[in-house]
Amino acid sequence: MEFLFRQSYKHCHTTTLPPTTNNLQKHYPTIKFTLKINNKTMIQNEFYEGVLYQIEYKPELSNSDYTQHKVYHIKTDDEDYPHARKAIASIMETELNYKQGEIWSKGQWQLKNKQEPSMVNGLHVYYEFAYNEELDVYVYTFVRPYDD
Q: What pTM value is reported for the model?
């Protein structure tokens, strides 16, 4: 089976992948498939521990005024909420060019700011995570607090 995949933003490669999911995960732990329309990414597919996550940025739900909110809808067959949250948080840190663990959850952000109030903690980036039953998607919101 052949796939076109990107190892970096500048290079595209075609490779023959092993036939099973276990081999696929062992040889290629993160594989990206991106659908682009007019040079704008619409839907991006990511695998995490062999499970497919379809990520779609929702600019109409996002804002860049003062505190920035970037909203993403993620479709997956992963019905295990804690596993999906961990997987999506990891995938999104990579996609947003952060190191693993650098983007705090909203709960962690609130706790840090209560226990150790500071400008550094107050302006730290965090994410909100929820499941929308009506749309059948996980909603990941990246938040960058504003310093006024």
A: 0.72
Contact 4, 14 (CB under 8 A): yes
Structure tokens at 96: 């947003």
Give me the residues paired with residue 69 across strands: 63, 143
d(C-alpha 31, C-alpha 98), whole Å: 18
Instruction: Round to whole Å and give the CA distance between 6 and 9.
Output: 7
**In whole angstroms, how far apart are CA 21 and each of 12, 52, 72, 85, 137?**
22, 11, 26, 21, 24
Beta bridge partners of residue 41, listed in sequence order: 36
Residue 137 backbone dihedrals phi, psi, to 5 degrees: -140, 155
The residue among 5, 45, 54 whose CA lies nearest residue 28 is 5
> Residue 61 has which token pair?
């739900």
**57 phi and psi, to 5 degrees?**
-75, 135
- The DSSP bridge pattern shows strands 126-132 and 104-105 to be parallel
Segment 18-57, tens digit of pLDDT: 444 444 444 444 445 444 444 455 688 889 988 999 999 9
